[in-house]
Amino acid sequence: MEAQGISPNIVTFNTLMSIYVQQGKTDDVFRVYAEIEGRGLVPTAATYSTLMSAYKKAGDAFAAIKFFVMLRERYKKGELVGNHGNWEQEFVKFEKLTVRVCYMSMRRSLVSGQNPVGEVLKVLLAMDEAGVRPERSDYERLVWACTGEEHYAIGKELYQRIRERDGEISLSVCNHLIWLMGKSKKWWAALEIYENLLEKGPKQNNLSYELIMSHFNILLNAAKRRGTWRWAVRLLNKMQEKGLKPGSKEWNAVLLACSRASETSAAVDIFKKMVEEGLKPDIVSYGALLSALEKGKLYDEALRVWEHMCKVGVKPNLYAYTILVSIYIGKGNHAMVDTVLHDMVSTQIEPTVVTFNAIISACVRNNMGGTAFEWFHRMKMRSIEPNEITYQMLIEALVQDGKPRLAYEMYKRACSQGLELPVKSYDTVMEACKAYGSLIDLTTLGPRPTKREEPIRLEDNFSSFSQIKELPNSTQHFGGTGMYGFFRYRMARP
């Protein structure tokens, strides 16, 4: 053009910049803009708009913010040529373009950034300092991009910004954040969002309820596994405070926590409250109560509970029978243990290693070492193979009964069968042989095991009580490998 004596004008350069944007050649766009300024041409609104598109293409939020601030200052000083009213309308567009550039940049960081939280927070801070104000919808769209565990801080920050802006927020966004906080194990942050739904709105729906119940179930299951019964009771109380209605599964988790912690009185109180709430105890409930009573050596009370359980039509399972034989061992009524085992077989419930481990464990608790060894032989007669727990409890029983040599032989037999006993069993045999002055070559025990000792938890087997298969797919295993169905709640978006 210039060779033919035709000087390009601003329209020509705007067109050229647009072509480069479409081709993704952002560096050429910036080069053309620098040439416009070098030639002394006056940029138009289209020039600036095209330049913003180039920043969006490049994903450079900070450059876009810097350019917008510079443009705003020139506008305030009256340095922009054209009608003032037109420029005022254009600036609304420029601000939206800037927000869009920042949104795309932050979304890109959330999806593939090495430090997504830091990168997004920097952009948000830069927008605050520049006075660039996103709409609520912009924040909400960004919330939906938060799907990783590490995104919880961004999700919480965006939630607070939306609430502080005008108080209104989409229910689907709240549900997504409750899910995100649960995935990130920020249970109380999820509860806070749910509480805000109750107090400030929008009104929660079934999905909100289901999500928060799932979170409580995760916490209750953790309390159940660890036996932190006070924590389990507090969780149950918190659920009721927030208008949530614990079902049998939640009450059973608290009962199992009390049972594991050997808190008999607490288990009895929880069982009574469960009935008062109108819930019908099942085999899980009765099993946990029986276990707690057995550990508290309240054998007569436990038998009355058993009789009531059978009277109301709740059929005992393997683990309930296992607790019952432990009760009769505690009472010293070995004849009834045989009767129970016979009843089990007659109802097509075969005793397992768990059953005999419970019997041997009950013998240990009641200082009946000789009886424990008898039951070990009867176990072998039934062709039931002992496991690590069997030998660990048996060794303890034999030492209690003053038979260190027999304990030594049991330890050697377990090792010969390829079983790995904990350090405690090794130490028990070693100390007993020394204390009783046994003429045993202790070097034959081999080196002291280095395996980390794990406490014996026969109650672990009672966890089958709580394996309820009729759970909805959306809540089963929430927070584990089978995390809440992500696509299901996405369908609930407006």
UniProtKB/TrEMBL annotation:
It comes from the Eukaryota. InterPro entries: PPR_rpt, PSII_mRNA-binding_protein, TPR-like_helical_dom_sf. PPR repeats lie at residues 9-43, 212-246, 247-281, 282-316, 352-386, 387-421. Keywords: Repeat, Transit peptide. This is Uncharacterized protein. It comes from Panicum hallii var. hallii.
